C-alpha cells in the first residue's frame, strides 16, 4: 500500500529539484562563451593559408561545398560567380586571409559574414527552402577548409606534417570555426571524428549538383567581362593554366566525390598530379616571400616582423 503523504512529499522534492536544474541550465545558457582570439605569428595557419599554393587546394574545397544541396542551391540562385568569377574569387580569398592575418579585424569579419549570409535563402526544384546560415551547411563550408589545408600539405608542402603538427592544425581550425561562429556542436572533437564526419557527408549528403560542374567548367573558360582585345590572350592562358588548375582541382577531390560527379580519374592521372604538384612545390619554395604569399598575408607577416623588431628595441633601450 502506498502512503499518500510520503508520495506527495517525494513528488514535491522531485519537482523542486527539476525546477532548480532547469533554472541552472538556463543560467548557464545565458553566459556568453568567451570571444575567440585572433591568430598570431607562430600558428600553422599563419604560415600556410596565405601561400598562393593554398589556392590550388582550395578549389576542391569549393567544389565540395557546392555539392551540398543547400549550398549549391543558394549559390546557384544568389551568387554572382557565373558573371563575375574573378571578382568573387578575389573577395573570397581576401576574406579568408582576413580571418588569419587581420588581428581584431578577423573577429569583425566573422561577424560580417554571418550578417551577410542571414538573408540568403533559395528554393530548389522540389520546393524545398535552403538557408545559407543553417547549421549543417554553415559548418560544412568551414570544415571543407580543413580538408583543403591537409590536401595542400600533402601535395605542396616540403615535408609531411608530424602527428603533433596535424593536431595543432586541427585545433587551429576548430578555433577558426569559433571565429566564424560555427555552432560548437557542429565542430568535431578529434581528428578521427572529423574524418568520420567528412566521409559521411561525402557519402550521404553531397550530390552531383550542377553548380559543381559549372565551377569546374569555368576554370577553363575566358572570364566574363574580359575586354575583347584581351580575349585571345585569356583564351590561350585558359588552355594552359585553366586546364592545369582544373586537373589539380579534380585530382585533389576525394575519390567518392569524383565518382558522384562522374569525373574519370586513373592511376596515371594520379602519378601525373603528384609530379605536377611536386614541381610547383619545389619552384615556389625558391621564390622570395613576397611572391610566395598573397598580398594581405605578406603585409601581415612583414608588419609582424617589424613589430617584433620594435619590441626588441624597446626592451633593450637605455634606462
Class inferred from helices and paired strands? mainly alpha
Helical run tally: 15
| General shape | globular
The sequence of SSEs as H and E is HHHHHHEEHHHHHHHHH
**Total count of domains:** 1
| pLDDT < 50 stretches | 1-15, 25-31
The percent range for strand residues is: under 5%
Percent of residues in helices? 55-70%
Distance between the amino and carboxyl termini: 88 Å
How would you state the average pLDDT, rounded?
Answer: 86
Number of strands: 2
Radius of gyration: 24 Å
User: Sheet with the most strands?
Assistant: 2 strands, antiparallel
- The largest beta-sheet arranges its strands as 1-2
Topology:
Elements: H1 4-30, H2 44-48, H3 52-66, H4 69-78, H5 85-101, H6 104-117, E1 121-123, E2 129-131, H7 135-156, H8 163-179, H9 191-204, H10 210-218, H11 231-251, H12 255-261, H13 267-285, H14 289-292, H15 295-315
Helix pairs in contact: 3-7, 3-10, 3-11, 5-6, 5-15, 7-8
Short description:
By secondary structure, the protein is mainly α. The chain contains 15 helices and 2 strands.
Describe this structure in words.
By secondary structure, the chain is mostly helical. It is built from 15 helices and two strands. The protein has one domain (about 45-225, about 240-295). Strands 1-2 form a two-stranded antiparallel sheet. A hairpin with a 5-residue loop joins strand 1 (about 120-125) and strand 2 (about 130). Helix 3 (about 50-65) packs antiparallel against helix 7 (about 135-155). The longest helix has 27 residues, at about 5-30. The model is unreliable at about 1-15 and about 25-30 (pLDDT under 50).
Amino acid at each position: 500500500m502506498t502512503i499518500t503523504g510520503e508520495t506527495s512529499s517525494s513528488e514535491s522534492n522531485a519537482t523542486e529539484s527539476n525546477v532548480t536544474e532547469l533554472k541552472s541550465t538556463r543560467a548557464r545558457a545565458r553566459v556568453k562563451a568567451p570571444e575567440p582570439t585572433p591568430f598570431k605569428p607562430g600558428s600553422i595557419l599563419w604560415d600556410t593559408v596565405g601561400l598562393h599554393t593554398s589556392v590550388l587546394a582550395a578549389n576542391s574545397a569549393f567544389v565540395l561545398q557546392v555539392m551540398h544541396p543547400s549550398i549549391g542551391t543558394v549559390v546557384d540562385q544568389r551568387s554572382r560567380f557565373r558573371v563575375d568569377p574573378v571578382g568573387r574569387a578575389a573577395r573570397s580569398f581576401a576574406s579568408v586571409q582576413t580571418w588569419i592575418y587581420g588581428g581584431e579585424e578577423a573577429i569583425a569579419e566573422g561577424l560580417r559574414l554571418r550578417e551577410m549570409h542571414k538573408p540568403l535563402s533559395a528554393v530548389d526544384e522540389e520546393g524545398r527552402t535552403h538557408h545559407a546560415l543553417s547549421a549543417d551547411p554553415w559548418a560544412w563550408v568551414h570544415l571543407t577548409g580543413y580538408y583543403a589545408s591537409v590536401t595542400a600539405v600533402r601535395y605542396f608542402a616540403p615535408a609531411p606534417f608530424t602527428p603533433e603538427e596535424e593536431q595543432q592544425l586541427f585545433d587551429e581550425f576548430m578555433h577558426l570555426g569559433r571565429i566564424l561562429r560555427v555552432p560548437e556542436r557542429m565542430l568535431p572533437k578529434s581528428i578521427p571524428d572529423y574524418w568520420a564526419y567528412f566521409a559521411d557527408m561525402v557519402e550521404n549528403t553531397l550530390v552531383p549538383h550542377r553548380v559543381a560542374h559549372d565551377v569546374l567548367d569555368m576554370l577553363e573558360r575566358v572570364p566574363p567581362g574580359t575586354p575583347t582585345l584581351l580575349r585571345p590572350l585569356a583564351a590561350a592562358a585558359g588552355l594552359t593554366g585553366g586546364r592545369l588548375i582544373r586537373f589539380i582541382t579534380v585530382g585533389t577531390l576525394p575519390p567518392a566525390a569524383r565518382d558522384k560527379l562522374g569525373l574519370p580519374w586513373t592511376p596515371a592521372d594520379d602519378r601525373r598530379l603528384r609530379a605536377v604538384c611536386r614541381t610547383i612545390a619545389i619552384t615556389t619554395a625558391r621564390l622570395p616571400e613576397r611572391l610566395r604569399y598573397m598580398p594581405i598575408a605578406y603585409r601581415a607577416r612583414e608588419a609582424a616582423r617589424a613589430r617584433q623588431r620594435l619590441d626588441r628595441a624597446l626592451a633593450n633601450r637605455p634606462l
